[in-house]
Amino acid sequence: xKNPERVAAGLKSTVHNPRTSxxxxxxxxxxxxxxxxxxxxxxxxxxxxxxxxxxxxYRATLKNPRVSEEAKEHAKEVLEENxxxxxxxxxxxxAGYKATIHNPNVSKEAKKHxxxxxHKMG
Length: 122
Prior knowledge:
The chain is mainly alpha-helical. Helices cover 67% and strands 0% of the residues. The chain has 3 domains: 45 residues, no CATH class; 42 residues, no CATH class; 32 residues. The protein is built from 6 helices and no strands. The longest helix has 16 residues. It is elongated. This is Conidiation-specific protein 6.
């Protein structure tokens, strides 16, 4: 059985997605109304960098071991609905590994792993 809270979250995402058709938004809003869930009006003042941070948060959710499978599935749905890649940009991953290598607070084991991953990346 589907979790009503997750269903509502997906429907809200549809309502607020600028890439979603008006018909899909109307259908989602109708279902939310039937579920007695209030839909907040989208904040049109939100910046592009804010959107990027939100999408980055969903991508991070996919790899976080402390997050439930249900939350990961929701994050995946939101990313797909927004035509966002499920993984990060390779250049950002490489930059993270390089930072790990130079960070004095990181264990030798983590630095070794970062070097191995950078080597795999070319």
